[in-house]
Amino acid sequence: MATTTVAKGLPSVHDLDSAIEQITGAYHPPVRDYLARIASLMGQTAARYGLGYLNLQPLAEAFIQLEDALLSRVDEQVQRLFPSFRKLIIGRGASRNCRRIFQAAVSESKQSDQRILQLLQQIAEITDSYSPSSTASVGYSEMILDLASLDGLSREYTEAEARLLRMDGFER
C-alpha cells in the first residue's frame, strides 16, 4: 500500500498506526523482558555474593534508575504520547490544544530519552563497556551480556520513536 498523507504533510492514520504498532510490538515487550531478566540476575548475584561483588552496588543503583526510566517511557508512550499524536493526525493538526499536548509530550520524550542514554553510558562505564571479568560468576556474566543487549535495543527504540515523531515534521 502506498503511503498517503493528509494536509500539511501529516502522515495518514494508517501509516501512523503501523509505526506505533511497530514500536509497541517490536520494542516494548523485549525491553520489559530484558529488564525483568536483568533484575532477577542482579538479585540472585547480590544474594549470593553481596553488593560489593564486582561493582554490583553502583551497577544496581544505575540499573534501578534505568529500569524506572524505561518503564516510565513505555507507559508515557502508550498513555499519552501516541494517543496525542494520533489525535493530532486525525484532526489534521487543527486543534491548538492537541498540538500543545503533543509538543509537551514530545519535549518530555526528548528529556526521557536523554536520561536513558546517560544511564546507559553510566552502566557501560561501570561494566567496562559490558565486559564481564574473567572471574565473574556465570549469572553476573549473563547479566552483563543482557545489559549490553538492552543497551543496543534501547538505542534502537529511542531512534524508532524519533523517526515516528518526525513523521509530522516536528523537530526533536
Report on the architecture of this protein:
This protein is mostly helical. The protein has one domain (10-168). 76% of the residues lie in helices and 0% in strands. The chain contains five helices and no strands. The longest helix is centred in the middle third of the chain and has 35 residues, at 56-90. The chain is elongated and about 60 Å long. Residues 1-8 have low confidence and may be disordered.
Which descriptors would you attach to this protein?
172 residues; mainly alpha; 5 helices
What's the layout of helices and strands?
Elements lengths: L12 H14 L1 H22 L6 H35 L5 H31 L11 H28 L7
What's the gist of this structure?
With 172 residues, the protein is mainly α. Helices cover 76% and strands 0% of the residues.
pLDDT averaged residue by residue: 86
Count up the helices. Answer: 5
* Helix share bin: over 70%
Sheet-strand content, in percent, reads under 5%
